Design the sequence.
């Protein structure tokens, strides 16, 4: 089986652990994200290390860090991995517009140039300053996944171009892709665009879909072969956990237990104990998964959601 690029080098799937976090955030310390919303600023290596230590102590394995060419900090992620032993799968690609300054290079270059900038993060190493330039400084860590993003109920023309770029990079590298959705919207349009770009949907993970816990929509996305990522647990401001649990059970009963994954998406200081908030990075493992067990989810279900499905997405 193919190995997966992580901060600890390329690893075979059986080295990723039995609890793979399909969508989370270790750092966000550049770009407008943390400027416009100070709660988004995640910048402290010691504090984030403390969070990841608790994740590991609770049985946590590899984590997909879902900041691509903005906000990302590969050097800090590498340091956390070295201190905790937890492999982190780094992203290239592009988030939604709000995380970029309006004059960002994503709006400047043609498709061939964008392919080159993205491809080299996978083949040579992640650019340590997120291509803020002018000097290119590559990490030894390579990107293992590529991000694209929808906006609320639409996909911008710039993102349509970037999806074509990601498609061309996928043809060369087979790197898996995940899509941010805004409240779960525009998922079908994103799948159409990814398919048109030549990316097989069994290498695509659609994120934050439980913000729109509409079973009909979820079953259709799963039927098309894509994976679905859920991350509202602990974030009661979105919905009670009973809703995502019912959704997960319904997906399993419909035969789509092999399509769903969990992520923490702990992208705020106020979610993290070390930054003075809660419930902490380990919540999915220490509170939510035990609840799934109490609610009747089987060992088999958990193995699919936490291990087999992420591995199949990552490796094809
Ligand atoms: Zn996220």
Sequence:
């Amino acid at each position: 089986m193919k190995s997966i690029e992580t901060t600890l080098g390329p690893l075979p799937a059986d080295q990723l652990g039995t609890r793979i976090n399909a969508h989370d955030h270790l750092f966000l310390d550049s770009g407008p994200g943390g400027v416009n919303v100070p709660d988004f600023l995640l910048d402290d290596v010691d504090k984030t290390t403390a969070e990841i230590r608790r994740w590991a102590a609770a049985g946590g394995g590899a984590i997909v860090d879902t900041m691509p060419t903005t906000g990302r900090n590969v050097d800090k992620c590498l340091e956390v991995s070295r201190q905790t032993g937890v492999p982190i799968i780094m992203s290239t690609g592009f988030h939604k517009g709000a995380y970029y300054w309006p004059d960002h290079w994503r709006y400047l270059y043609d498709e061939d140039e964008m392919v080159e900038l993205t491809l080299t993060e996978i083949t040579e190493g992640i650019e340590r300053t997120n291509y803020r330039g002018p000097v290119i400084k590559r990490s030894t860590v390579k990107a293992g996944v590529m991000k694209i993003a929808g906006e609320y109920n639409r996909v911008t023309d710039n993102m349509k171009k970037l999806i074509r770029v990601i498609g061309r990079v996928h043809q060369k590298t087979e790197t898996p892709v995940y899509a941010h959705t805004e409240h779960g919207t525009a998922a079908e349009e994103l799948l159409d665009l990814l398919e048109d770009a030549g990316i097989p949907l069994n290498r695509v993970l659609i994120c934050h879909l439980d913000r729109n816990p509409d079973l009909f929509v979820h079953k259709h996305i799963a039927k098309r072969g894509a994976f679905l990522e859920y991350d509202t647990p602990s974030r009661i401001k979105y919905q009670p956990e009973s809703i995502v649990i019912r959704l997960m059970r319904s997906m399993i009963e419909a035969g789509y237990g092999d399509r769903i994954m969990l992520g923490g998406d702990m992208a705020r200081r106020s979610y993290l104990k070390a930054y003075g908030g809660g419930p902490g990075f380990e919540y999915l493992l220490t509170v939510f998964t035990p609840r799934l067990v109490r609610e009747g989810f089987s060992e088999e279900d958990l193995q699919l959601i936490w291990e087999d499905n992420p591995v199949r997405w990552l490796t094809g």
In short: The chain has a mean pLDDT of 97.
